[in-house]
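Records of this kind hold a single protein each, on a pair of labelled lines. Below, a sample record shows both lines together.
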Amino acid sequence: MSEQDFKYYLDSLTVISIGAKYSYRELIREENISLKYRTICRRCFTAEVDPETTLESHLYYMKPEDESCDIYTRLKTKVIILEPELHGGHVRYAEKEMKIGELAGIPAEEKERRGIIIREVRISKMGLGSFAV
């Protein structure tokens, strides 16, 4: 897998899916991504983390008490993670969906121990629509 495998943007009827390797600077510059989400990135998230920070890194080290965790919760965000599992002597990655609060509740050391990889961020369009910037 290359880094580009985790840089994508999918816009469905109910959810915006964003690959976790995007940095906030890249998201803000990407015209195909929702203007409202780009505005939230610029005004809220880059006030808390460096614009060069990737979604993956930001979410990996996010804590439940961080303002960005509250914002992502209000956006009804879910995260797709990959977690290694041993099957018959072979390691396979199981894909799991977690609410942002669940992921933030796992300390970074525990995420590292478990080998968690953050693959995708899914933002509810209903949550995005009801969020006041």
The chain has a mean pLDDT of 94. The CA atoms of residues 9 and 18 lie 5 Å apart.
